[in-house]
Amino acid sequence: xxxxxxxxxxxxxxxxxxxxxxxxxxxxxxxxxxxxxxxxxxxxxxxxxxxxxxxxxxxxxxxxxxxxxxxxxxxxxxxxxxxxxxxxxxxxxxxxxxxxxxxxxxxxxxxxxxxxxxxxxxxxxxxxxxxxxxxxxxxxxxxxxxxxxxxxxxxxxxxxxxxxxxxxxxxxxxxxxxxxxxxxxxxxxxxxxxxxxxxxxxxxxxxxxxxxxxxxxxxxxxxxxxxxxxxxxxxxxxxxxxxxxxxxxxxxxxxxxxxxxxxxxxxxxxxxxxxxxxxxxxxxxxxxxxxxxxxxxxxxxxxxxxxxxxxxxxxxxxxxxxxxxxxxxxxxxxxxxxxxxxxxxxxxxxxxxxxxxxxxxxxxxxxxxxxxxxxxxxxxxxxxxxxxxxxxxxxxxxxxxxxxxxxxxxxxxxxxxxxxxxxxxxxxxxxxxxxxxxxxxxxxxxxxxxxxxxxxxxxxxxxxxxxxxxxxxxxxxxxxxx
Length: 482
Known about the structure:
By secondary structure, this protein is of the alpha+beta class. Among the domains are: 1-116, no CATH class; 356-426; 428-482. The protein is built from 21 helices and seven strands. It has helices spanning 5-15, 19-31, 35-38, 42-56, 62-75, 83-90, 107-119, 125-135, 140-151, 157-168, 178-198, 208-221, 229-249, 262-267, 280-299, 305-315, 318-331, 337-345, 357-381, 385-397, 402-425, and strands at 428-431, 437-439, 445-447, 455-460, 462-466, 472-477, 479-481. The chain has a four-stranded mixed β-sheet, with no helix packed on it. Strand 5 and strand 6 (472-477) form a beta hairpin. The N and C termini lie far apart (93 Å).
């Protein structure tokens, strides 16, 4: 046993007055996998008790107290069964808040303290976790562990943002370019925030979009906007991805215009009239999100003007936003015509006063009858071959009736022309031809019998309104298909 290196390491771990020597001894005991074999050695227990005394005492050097917590957590990594009792033994140390985590220079030591903070709780601990997040410069694992501790003890994303706002607003890095340094730290924090939110079942909570915007702006207000282009690109990408993940995981947020407010700050970082190509991939995700929200509300008959204006923001320029809105109107014929008109024009247009309601109702009934007459007229037009057949027969069997038949056909053609003219003036037309196979559109047709696939055969054309360009609009009288 004299030559056994574990003996010296256990002696050092138990008795050395130098804390760093005890840290080194534990590292070697772990690397040589000695702890599982010697866990019941009195010296190992004595070393743990020394660290516990340091963790419980508010009189020791703050850095050493934090180090004691880190080492206690580390010492059980090869002894998982002892982890729960050890965590319970740390509870008395929570009567006095831990010193700032940034006192520990080693990222693994900070990570182990963060692990303790995830497993323990105290009234001051949530603020401590958030402040540790704000001050963490280099360790994503430490950030993730602190975020897990925060998320598991709140009821909403809104509460998480409240903690982050108060913790980040006073941070000012002591670097040559603090604005860029702080923007980088915010970007790295958002990377972890996205994962923590996506993996949680937290409700959104009140004013999430507004609070997220406040978090970004207030964090960077102490240093000003970042100057380096790559830092701007990275920050904008991460903010856009965070917004995208928020609305994808809590879709109700997509219908709230203020959800996208933080993107206004990103827009102010770039002098160009549109989004730089370096961030277009991420902002296009938000174009898709806002578009889907507009369609969702449109199906409910709700024209949300504020959300439509957010389309300008996520698209970058108004012309592109207008094109996207018009395309939505053209692609979604199932939407009410007032919604489609709103998407095309960018505003809700009131087309009549209350005194005109009755008049429009009467006109609607007239247009329905006119449409049905138009169906019969076009049926007659398609049967002109019968006239030629009758004329040929009459010339053989009764030539005196040929002239009468010609007069009848001419009179019928005049009536049909007049019907077509009235229909054109009322912007009426027919959709579908009897016997034609079409894609079934429930907005324009009623189905007789079961639908097989997506196609159906027209039994009666639909009567529809058209605009000046001939584009089909609202339905006056639904057609029939089978």
